Amino acid sequence: MSTNTNVKNNQNTGKRIIFVTGDKGGVGKSFVARALVQYFLDRKVQFRAYDLDPVNPNLAQFYPQQTTQLDIDEPGGLDIIRNDLDSHSLLIVDCAARAIGELDAWFIDMALLEQRKELRLSLTIAFVVTPDKSCTIIMRDALDRFGDQATYLVVRNLGKGSNFSIYEGSQLKKTLQASHGGHEISVPALLERTVVLLDSNDVSFGEAANSPMTTSADRSRVAGFLMRTYTQFDNVRSLLLPDPTVTERVEK
Asked: What gap in Å lies between CA 62 and CA 31, rounded to an integer?
């Protein structure tokens, strides 16, 4: 069931940064980030987004009004994220492949983990996984670096396959379930022909319904994809929206 959620920017509410990442290029992290941005737009949730991929800045390409492209290799290149926390409750970061090390260095430089309570800040690291055997490497790296100071969400990208036996049988999954809540969702597949049509014409998910480049079948298919994807996101809304209980915990 669809639910609209108005989340306004407020200095007194909890804040959240969502990092969408993956072990390597091609796992579909930007595809998932695009779906997440469209979800917040349709749910009327205020946010800002950032694209850290210097090679394929897909999020900035499809959602330029909501997204700022940043250079993770430039000293201070991520500082706008910290500055925007002052005026925005929800930030989405589409990471470059294997960017956890650079993010960790920036967190240390900013002392953000140490300031989480003061900033009323929650962190969600969303890992996009595929059936590939290397899909768990960066997750282990992030767990080692951020530990229990972040919340972890595994996003199975069904557009890359349906056999996730490598992840399902991994020690990492057991660790996530035992110590970090075991939060998992699946983003459904969207027909490759429709994906190529949208990508080649720079049509966002939200624009697909009215674009002259899409057929009626494409529009229906995208609408169905979004409905199924939004159901998945709704199931983990507490990991995606600013946490109102952060303010309560800090003020008590």
From this structure: 10
Is the CB of residue 96 less than 8 Å from the CB of residue 30? no
Q: Are 127 and 154 in contact (CB under 8 A)?
A: yes
Strand 48-51 to 67-69 pairing: parallel
- DSSP secondary structure letter of residue 45: B
In this predicted model, what pLDDT tens digit does every residue of 56-90 receive, in sequence order? 889 999 999 999 999 988 989 999 999 999 999 99
Instruction: Return d(Cα 161, Cα 167) in angstroms, integer.
Output: 13
Q: Tell me the CATH number of domain 15-184, given options 3.10.50.40, 3.40.1790.10, 3.40.50.300, 2.60.120.260.
A: 3.40.50.300
Write the pLDDT tens digit of every residue in 12-44.
579 999 999 987 666 789 999 999 999 999 999
